[in-house]
Known about the structure:
Layout: H1 2-18, H2 35-71, H3 76-102
Helix pairs in contact: 2-3
Amino acid sequence: MKTLVLLLLAVIAISATGLTGLAYAQSETVEVNNNSSMKLLGAGLAFGLAAAGAGIGLGQVGAAGLAVISENPALQSKVFIFVGMVESIAIYGIVMMFIILGQ
Length: 103
């Protein structure tokens, strides 16, 4: 888990430092608008990290849920509620992505 967090932080740091400079392939008279690239980066990070978190959470909840259902099938509806709560994290990420791109 620590390595995943460190990897995500490294990717964020590298991408953030790479997109803040000027585009050297263009002449100096052309102004570079980094706002659109930052919107795309922010929208991608919002959805990507939310989907990754939902995937990790769903793996944990799904495994525990299957164990609970195999022992007591009457608890199946409660397991589905927990699975739905974890899936809502990805939906929040999609909503934030559309909010960022709409501005």
